[in-house]
Design goal:
Blueprint lengths: L7 E6 L23 H16 L3 E6 L2 E2 L6 H11 L4 E3 L3 E2 L2 E2 H14 L3 E4 L6 E2 H11 L8 E3 L20 H4 L7 H11 L6
Parallel strand pairs: 1-2, 2-7, 3-6, 4-9
Antiparallel strand pairs: 5-8
Helix pairs in contact: 4-6
Length: about 200
């Protein structure tokens, strides 16, 4: 980028924060990844982009869901449809974010040429359990039970921060607003023909 004077958009994650905040994380809050190599690699990349590319946008997302491939929504609905018991974490909290909304917001953000750090997430916050419950309710599985468990009870190769709620502050000041995560999930399910009528 330096050689040709190009700007760079670097995609990052909510996991660059350590999860000790009790409110929301804003773009200028101190980063401190803990618990997994993925978070650390994203944090190192952010530092390199800031140091080496004058015109940059570092854009953080959390809990992305998109059409196609594997995602949390499909996993929850597949388990419900097959009648398998569900155990979902209650103490991991972030913002479910629809990739379609991110793409639209990112296009607008790039057009502004206002460089810096941004959080592009849908509005609100949810635990994994709340996210799963909302998915099931919208898809017609209101009577499907979900057992509540903690992060410590869920086997995983890496440990995410338990609390990493991002707030879209900087982009919102540029007029780039994003809908609630609940509305985004409903739109996703509707587009996939999975929204209960």
């Amino acid at each position: 980028c330096q050689a040709v004077g190009a700007a760079m958009v670097h995609i990052s994650t909510n996991e660059v924060f350590d999860g000790t905040n009790t409110g929301v994380y804003l773009e200028y809050d101190r980063t401190h990844p803990t618990g997994n190599a993925y978070a650390y690699s994203k944090w190192v990349a952010e530092q390199m982009v800031r140091d080496l590319v004058p015109r940059h946008m570092i854009v953080r997302f959390s809990w992305l869901f998109a059409h196609g491939g594997k995602n949390f929504i499909h996993a929850i609905l597949n388990r419900a449809a097959s009648g398998q018991p569900m155990r979902v974490v209650t103490n991991e909290v972030a913002v479910p974010t629809y990739a379609h909304d991110v793409a639209e917001a990112l296009e607008k953000l790039i057009a502004t040429q206002h460089y810096g750090i941004y959080h592009l997430v849908n509005e609100g916050r949810a635990s994994r359990w709340t996210f799963a419950r909302h998915i099931l309710d919208l898809a017609g599985y209101q009577n499907t039970p979900i057992e509540k468990i903690t992060v410590a009870e869920y086997p995983r190769p890496s440990r995410p921060p338990e609390y990493s709620v991002l707030r879209n502050f900087a982009a919102a000041r540029l007029g780039i607003q994003m809908r609630s995560w609940q509305d985004a999930v409903a739109a996703f399910l509707d587009a996939e023909g999975l929204l209960a009528k």
